[in-house]
Amino acid sequence: MSLAAVRSTPTVDDLVHQARLGDVTAFEALYRQLGDRVFGVCLRMADSREEAEEWAQDAWVKAWEKLESFRGDSAFSTWLHRLTVNTILDRRRSDGRRRARVESVADYRGVDQAQTSLAPPGVAHDLERAIATLPDGARTVFLLYDVEGYKHQEIAHRLGVAEGTVKAQLHRARKLLREALER
Amino acid sequence: MMHPDESTLNDFADGELGPEAVAEVERHLAECPMCHSEVDEIQLLKASARALDPTAPSPDLWDGIEARIRASFRPPLHDLERARLVHARKGASPGPRERRWMRTPLLAAAAVVLISLSSGITYLATRGPVGSEGGAVALSNGGELPTDGAQFAASSAAQVAAAYDPTIRQLREVLESGRSELQPETLGVIEEALAIIDQAIRDATEALEADPGSAAALRALNGTYDSKVHLLRQAASLTRGT
To answer: Which of A21, A39, A71 sits opposite B56 (nearest CB)?
Structure first.
């Protein structure tokens, strides 16, 4: 990329600034840069791809509506990520449905089922499958702690449970995942 | 040391143990291949989890997002434009009745803000002393304000205004620079809606000054400013044609 091209390429901060002034095109550019990560969070916590896309859409619409609350204290991607997780948890609470265990992620992830052993480069696919089979509470805590990097206290506060419960769920999730990956 | 339990090994892997407990576990791991292997597996699982790739959504997901963003403001103005064109074909400008009808959706939205805020302000005025509302109040636009006494009220209303003024000024500039992109009727609707919200802001400011230290009144004031910024941003997006 030429120096001129680098200089003319807007940064995330530039795009956020423009979006806050009503520029939907700038907001779309943010979506193009960060959309995959937002969707990934949703997909791992959803029961279906359709549900994940609904949640992702909700998160982006909420981000547009709350742009003025982003003050630059953290990276925009961090702010967006937290907003996405909050959106997911709010949706799950309001939906109030009993979440079914997912038997296989291949149905909605389009992942082939060739590999079953723990060996790179198939580790990611095996782990994704195994995560999808976790019980709801364990899956949520594992995703928030080990995948998304939240602290125990934050997770406990957000889920409305004791910190000890969060730890117990996390340890249970890891045990189940290790057992699943060793099969 | 006996074998640490599963919870302790997990806490060790997460850096959640105190220094003495860490030292104790490390001494054990140096002599116990089984526990050492278990910690290694936990660490490997954590590393694999952190390395999971982002996942691409359907190519048309943005279309749905964009439609929802624009739908939150555009429909009333589509009605305005359509009505204007109908009357233009008939060779007449929209009369007062039509203009009231065209204004209705947007003014209704702004009026909802005023009505809900008025109800909230009435409720606040009838409540007793708010001694139980101590502690810092987080603003939705960032930062915190203390909750102690009359001085808090005077400074907090001013602080809220000061926090939002730069954004409002910028959005106003965008709107002004793009005025020629909008029909006069559309501009009229926007200005009327802003007048309603500005009245709501004045009322919320008075409520806060009448009830110093009220976190609820502060939140209400914050909410009206959020509404103003949201409205201005939507209006600004129309001038850009984006």
So the answer is: A39
Q: Report d(CA A181, CA A178) in Å as an integer.
A: 5
- List of residues 6+ apart from A13 with CB closer than 8 A: A72, A76
Q: In Å, how far from its chain's centre is CA A159?
A: 16
Collect all residues of chain A within an 8 Å Cβ-Cβ radius of residue B159: none
Q: Which residue has the tokens 């117990």?
A: A168
Question: How far is the alpha carbon of B3 from chain A, nearest alpha carbon, in Å?
Answer: 17
The SS3 call for residue A121 is coil
Q: Looking at the DSSP assignment, which residues form a beta bridge with residue B144?
A: B138
Q: Which residues of B13-40 are buried (b: 16+ CB within 10 A; e: fewer)?
A: bbeebeeeeeebbeebbeebeebeebbe
Contact B57 A35 (CB under 8 A): yes
* pTM to 2 decimal places: 0.62
Distance from the Cα of residue B132 to its chain's centroid: 26
What is the tens place of the pLDDT at every residue in B140-189? Answer: 444 444 444 444 444 578 888 888 888 899 889 888 888 888 888 888 88
